[in-house]
């Protein structure tokens, strides 16, 4: 559904300096930030340079605190359930490594799980924890019935990635949450590609833990991310690293752990980037996540249709619901070479290697794909530009 008017689209593009110089279809890597995000970061850094780092933080403490509320508003959480991290991997890893597993316990995951998360899963397997992969069906949909069958008294965690790095499919995280809650199994969601593209409500999802990044569809700066940990499960996770932000009444005899999700984060991080994250969330909330999601789906559907009509091009996305990530390959041509040629001609796409989502890629026999990830500020004419290039370029037979 094309629900954003021409006037609105022009405004969003005028608000984004990068839109004037290139076609940016790498939003699943790092989106182009609105100018106001960059201005917020630069202005804060200038103030630090002329006023002092700690002094500037103290002066802007209300704004910095407000970012926690903005994140909470974005995902339907309470402010006390939010922690800020430098990236989603640190957020996910902190939560996962904070869980306690015993030999014989079982974890259920999906075929779309991201490589960094799989490293964590591989580590616990060495300790006698069984990891069960529930694969998608032939149509690319996650089978809830298979999930139900996989759960037993030893199941301690369901950990899934909502939207994969190297595919356009989507897992039904709300329905998975209902199954997890029915069986009283802890439920963890990687929403790295979700935040800023797809409306998130942790209560509707029914998740206990959710991690996300700022740099992707959120349009925030690199070096930002966040973690949601449901208040009722915070005591089930042990902080991996701690400093005085997480603890008070510290002595050699012990300390008192703070009673919110910030026990999982460290004090020292960029306040400028934190404010940039907050400004990006403000911008997205003003546009409206429902409207963003509808526009992204419309553009991605258009891109898949146009790409599928080009001889020699294969679109690989399957599933009943697809997102803004469009993956394809060109017959007989290495996908990295296709990616490089497009980028050289001002069309930013990315390469998805087999290592990013190894279970999914191996299952489908894919060594690499071209990934074009669209956002609401992209134009139909930009899709035509990419497709025309693929039609005209000699590597397409």
Automatic annotation (TrEMBL):
PROSITE patterns to which the protein is assigned, alphabetical: AA_TRANSFER_CLASS_5 (PS00595)
Keywords per UniProt: Lyase, Pyridoxal phosphate
Matches recorded under SUPFAM superfamilies: PLP-dependent transferases
Pfam family, one: Aminotran_5
Keyword Lyase among record annotations: yes
Cofactor: pyridoxal 5'-phosphate
An example molecular function term from Gene Ontology annotations: lyase activity
Keyword Lyase: yes
Span of domain Aminotransferase class V: 24-384
Listed Gene3D superfamilies: Aspartate Aminotransferase, domain 1, Type I PLP-dependent aspartate aminotransferase-like (Major domain)
Family recorded in the similarity comment: Belongs to the class-V pyridoxal-phosphate-dependent aminotransferase family.
Protein known as: Selenocysteine lyase/Cysteine desulfurase
Species name: Mucilaginibacter pineti
């Amino acid at each position: 559904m094309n629900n954003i008017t021409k006037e609105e689209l022009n405004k969003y593009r005028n608000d984004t300096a990068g839109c004037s110089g290139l076609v940016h279809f790498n939003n699943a890597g790092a989106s182009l930030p609105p100018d106001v995000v960059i201005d917020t970061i630069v202005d804060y850094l200038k103030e630090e340079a002329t006023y002092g780092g700690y002094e500037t933080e103290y002066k802007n403490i209300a704004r910095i605190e407000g970012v926690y509320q903005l994140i909470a508003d974005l995902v339907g959480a309470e402010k006390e359930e939010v922690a800020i991290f430098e990236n989603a991997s640190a957020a996910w890893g902190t939560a996962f490594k904070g869980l306690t597993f015993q030999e014989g316990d079982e974890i259920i995951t999906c075929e779309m799980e991201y490589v960094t998360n799989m490293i964590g899963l591989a580590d616990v397997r060495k300790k006698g924890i069984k990891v069960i992969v529930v694969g998608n069906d032939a149509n690319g949909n996650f089978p809830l019935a298979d999930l139900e069958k996989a759960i037993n008294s030893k199941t301690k965690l369901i950990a899934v990635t909502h939207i994969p790095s190297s595919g356009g499919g989507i897992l039904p995280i709300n329905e998975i949450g209902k199954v997890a809650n029915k069986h009283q199994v802890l439920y963890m969601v990687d929403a790295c590609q979700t935040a800023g593209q797809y409306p998130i409500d942790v209560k509707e999802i029914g998740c206990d833990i959710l991690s996300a990044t700022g740099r992707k569809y959120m349009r925030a700066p690199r070096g930002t991310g966040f973690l949601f940990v449901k208040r009722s499960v915070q005591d089930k996770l042990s902080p991996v690293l701690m400093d005085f932000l997480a603890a008070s009444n510290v002595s050699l005899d012990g300390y008192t752990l703070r009673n919110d999700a910030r026990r999982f984060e460290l004090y020292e991080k960029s306040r400028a980037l934190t404010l940039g994250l907050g400004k990006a969330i403000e911008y997205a909330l003003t546009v409206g996540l429902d409207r963003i999601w509808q526009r992204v789906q419309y553009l991605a559907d258009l891109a898949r249709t146009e790409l599928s009509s080009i001889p020699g091009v294969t679109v690989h996305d399957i599933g009943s619901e697809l997102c803004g990530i469009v993956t394809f390959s060109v017959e007989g041509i290495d996908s990295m070479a296709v990616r490089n040629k497009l980028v050289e001609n001002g069309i930013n796409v990315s390469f998805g290697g087999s290592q990013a989502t190894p279970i999914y890629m191996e299952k489908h026999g894919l060594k690499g794909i071209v990934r074009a990830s669209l956002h609401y500020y992209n134009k139909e004419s930009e899709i035509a530009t990419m497709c025309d290039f693929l039609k005209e370029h000699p590597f397409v037979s």
